[in-house]
Amino acid sequence: MTPVRLSLLLAAGLGLALAACQPKAPAGPPPGTVRFSIMSTENIQAAQGAWTPFLADMEKATGLKIEPYYGTNYIALIEAMRFKQTDVGWFTNQSGLEAVRRSGGEVFARTTKPDGPDGYQALIVVKKGSGLTLDRILACDRTLDFAMGDAKSTSGTLAPMTWLFGPRNIRPETCFKTVRSANHEANLFAVSMGQLDAATNNSQSIARLADQKTPAAQKAVADIEVVWRSPTLPEDPMVWRKDLDPALKARIRDFVLSYGVGDTDEAKRQREVMRAIQTGPFKPADDSHLLPVREMEATAALIEARNRKDPAAEAKAKASLDQVQAEQKALAAKAG
How far does the signal peptide extend, from start to end residue (predicted)? Predict the structure, then answer.
């Protein structure tokens, strides 16, 4: 065997070995299947019980196979859409914004309140009877155990940083003895059992937990009290992959926007199904739905840059904020 032929064979063998070592691309849904992602801020079993009837109705109405994809954190759901492991999903505002930015996502609908006006509030909760006040929490003497939400949680992280901690130049990691990150249910149970002094949460999550009507859930809700409430946050977006087949988009959109609408017995049944997932009938939306969270994000960045005395970061954040406000003004003028 010639040296040239031997080197070619060795190179080919090395190439095959390296290829075998490369991680395989994540598998997407098979043809005719839509994978629907759901972030569970409570336990997965409760989420499955609430979502299964809705997904079954979606499957029947669209003629598609609907596979649920439950996530325990928003990063996992954002990455799943980026790698085309999922097609459509219910996101929070900040995680939905990341899905649009990084995963080729597009907002097509939004949730509504089953009762009362739209919107919800970020909260900070403490154990009832603890005597712990907001002023005590903001004292930052590193004696309290605190928990925030997922890094991409609008109510669990972005809202308290934008409206509470940031304006006071407070960094949670230097304010508290410990800072944990967990979902809303885990945080609420930890506070109710005295394992945490305080934690972020939101009004929707507490309402969902109260609706479970299990003794443990009822006790947990009864054992906490709210010491801080944010301004109203917009309802959650529904996001699909922008590159989805238009025919699939049409089927999904028709189902989502007609579900629970009307005065028929079937529509009433559907609204009861939706109540279990804490929404009323969906409304059409687009990426402009995310303008308020973009404004919060830019505001938080501007506050942080000013606190750090970083002129370059401040200028960048100010430019982002100006851009968002210009888009809001243009949208208002168009609507008016």
Answer: 1-19
